[in-house]
Amino acid sequence: MGAECNLIRHFGKVQTVRANSAQYPCKKESFVSLVVPATTILETQDTHVHTFRSSCGLPECTPKAVLERFQQLHFQVVCITDHRHLDTDPALFQETCADLLEIETPLDVYVGCEAEVLSPELVSLPDSEADMYDVILLAASHYHVFNRYVPRVSTPRQMAEWVLALHRRAASKPWADIIPHPFSFTETLGPWGDAAILESIRDDELVELADMAKSNSIAIEFRLGHALSPAYRELLLRFTKICVRRGVLLSSGSDAHSLDAVGITRTFLVPMRTLGIQNKHFVDIRTVVRNR
Ligand SMILES: [Zn+2]
Ligand SMILES: [Zn+2]
User: Fold this and answer.
1) Cα 33 to averaged position of ligand 2 atoms, centre (Å)
2) What is the domain-level CATH number for residue 283?
3) Whole-structure pTM value
């Protein structure tokens, strides 16, 4: 039997059998005994991984190689989330499912996608196709990829309002499960640098965004993978605090595009520790899929 793949169930092509949970236990008890329990879900669940089927994914990232790497790292849950751009052929995701059926693995593997909000009016994944996927990441900060949608504005505050509008659009989609890397790449938006844009975003605007995400059961991915500027770190810290306070779940994703990056989910660990974040603050993607 190959890897489980709920996407296949949604496509209705092949009936697969989920891995036996007794054979591959979640080891929840062992969480309790760890010195730093807040790290544990970050060490066992990666909800954001690309393969070579993303144009930006390295050729080495075959599903087999990716899953072998996760096994070496003792992960338990993996979401393969290749890009779903406007022009992506959905058959790509079926190809991944077909690959997975040939792979023996003890991991819980889900096939999702990373769709994107390109403008407040334009989302790359049609509503009618959302139920194809086990898990959907909906990015609101891919403007570095599709910069023709970036508006010409004259102040960093105006740009911040557009950035917020994209994020609110992502948080308004009931089929979205996770908003990955919020507010990343703002340094690519105009001549001001990211600090001028990010520092103009007010807490009440972050609260509004968090509440929208919460009302649609959307988790937020926190990672420092794309930018390490003090302004970005500060914004993420503010937003993490607000999400935790408003009951929005956090997500643990590496956004790996190479085998080296697979499973690197802990880049925001130190700030998370200072906030007292524990496993209960993270989305358990198995529960999300089960409740679909
Ligand atoms: Zn992304
Ligand atoms: Zn990604």
Assistant:
1) 32
2) 3.20.20.140
3) 0.88
